[in-house]
Amino acid sequence: MSTTELSFPVLQGSSLLGFLAALGAFRTLATQPKSSEMRMRWTPGGGSYFPVFQFPTTVEPDSIVEKLHTALRELSGHYAITVDKDLKIPRANFRKLATKAAEDFLCLADPTAANMVAAFGCDAVGNEEGMIEDTGFRTMSGAGHQHFLEFMNVLAKETTSEQLQEALFGPWRYRDPSPTMRWDAEDDRRYALRWDEPSKDPVRTVRGANLLAIAALPLFPTVPLSSHELATTAFKGRGSRDTFITWPIWNGHLSLSAISSVLSLQEFQNDKTTAISVAPLGIDAIYRSQRITLGKYRNFTPPQSL
The pTM is what? Predict the structure, then answer.
């Protein structure tokens, strides 16, 4: 059987958005019919690492873009991301959503919903207001008309194949208007970090990368640790000053299920862990980014190499 390898140098593994976009692209393709044998690895380049996808058949870059565009458009209007504008969802309502998603999964009607809902939160863990505790990736909750789920729906509906092409093959020009999911360090628009007042400077992003990153969320499910504590895969901490996400860069050809296992390894959350200490696991690098809270928004800092 003839295989094909495609490299994506623009998707830098040292960037949280680049890492998530790579995973989202791979997961979307690997869950399609006849693509379960796909593999993914990282290779050094550009002062960082970029992903290489191995396909079980001969493929062309243009066909990859179209497959992704078609698949990701199916998220538009999906009940998992239109249940509300944000993840401020009452536990009873979220339980109904999770029940429907589980039923659709068990009858093979829709595997996407269950994966996304598990990544959003859990009705078993709530706050004092009766709302669910949610994913560590949540960066907004309606302030300034920025809505976490609504932005996902807009990106799924409006992102073009040309924008996906730019996200995958570059260069990233940061010419697309909002929305952005605020997973890019470039989304930190504090006045002290800019030459001009940010409210007068229009938001510019890479829409295709944001949409691909959304597709990676099912690889980061939430897990209840107790009746009042929820954990998100790859995250450590809960507060506004002690929450971090850590991700590995691996060198072997891994399947989708293997990648899911690697992301959840507890070793990466240990403060004493370094890339050298986990090298026997096939890990070339580890990156960590802090999630910070600025007023009513969250952002992720530029990652540090461990």
Answer: 0.93
